[in-house]
Design brief:
Length: about 240
């Protein structure tokens, strides 16, 4: 009954987050469903120190689904991997409940560190296509990471992160990524910086024009005063 209940929960998760699915039977064709099911088995073997068989299952699953989940990773309930090709989840990665990952996401390390070397992902987090989260730090609950971002530092809860390297552009977003799966309408810090630079450039141009006008007007007054002085001197010499 536990296994059947688990399968029903997975079907519910996939149907809630993927509008393309039309029936429950389609869930069994999803790479995400198969990858997570096989991961659960591999993780149990890994916990019992059957490391070879655990890795054998994970590598076989990676070849068939394009999703590589190390059997040592700790994954909560409700993980949904959309499409899935190119997804990599490292050995010491910890993933909370109701997390959504898109294709090309990497939850990896930054080198050959020992111990905890992969990120900890909080609950209700969405990581968009192609994003890379590298290092041993925490991504807070209810956060969203934009497509193509490279995150190498901790992310506070309720944040939106975009860019390379990733930076927080919004805090305490009230929408929960579990239900808000919009990957497109995110703040663009580069565009904002360019707009700010353009505004500053326009202000500088106006200031330069004002200075030029002041200098030109000052030069005219100086030349007219000089001419008047010369005229007065000429008059005095004639006298």
């Amino acid at each position: 009954m536990g296994f059947i209940r688990y399968v029903k929960e997975e079907i519910k998760v996939i149907r809630e987050r993927d509008p393309a699915i039309k029936s429950n039977s389609e869930v069994f064709l999803y790479p995400s469903f198969r990858a997570i099911m096989w991961y659960r088995l591999a993780h149990r073997l890994y916990q019992k120190k059957h490391f070879f068989w655990a890795r054998w299952i994970s590598q076989r699953t990676a070849r068939k689904t394009g999703i590589e989940i190390h059997p040592g990773a700790v994954i909560g309930k409700g993980l949904f991997i959309d499409h899935g090709h190119g997804v990599v989840i490292g050995e010491t990665c910890v993933i909370g409940n109701n997390v959504t990952l898109y294709q090309g996401v990497t939850l990896g390390g930054t080198g050959k560190e020992s111990g905890k070397r992969h990120p900890t992902i909080g609950n209700n987090v969405m990581i968009s296509a192609g994003a890379k989260v590298l290092g041993s730090f925490q991504v807070g609950d209810n956060s969203k990471i934009g497509a193509g971002s490279v995150v190498i530092s901790p992310v506070p809860a309720g944040s939106t992160v975009v860019g390379v390297p990733g930076r927080v552009v919004r805090r305490e977003n009230k929408k929960v990524p579990q239900m808000d799966l919009d990957q497109v309408h995110l703040p663009d810090p580069i565009s904002s910086d360019i707009s700010h630079l353009q505004e500053e450039n326009m202000c500088l141009q106006k200031a330069i024009r004002v200075l030029q006008e002041c200098m030109e007007s000052g030069a005219c007054r100086y030349s007219s005063q000089k001419e008047n002085t010369e005229k007065v001197d000429n008059v005095n010499n004639e006298k």
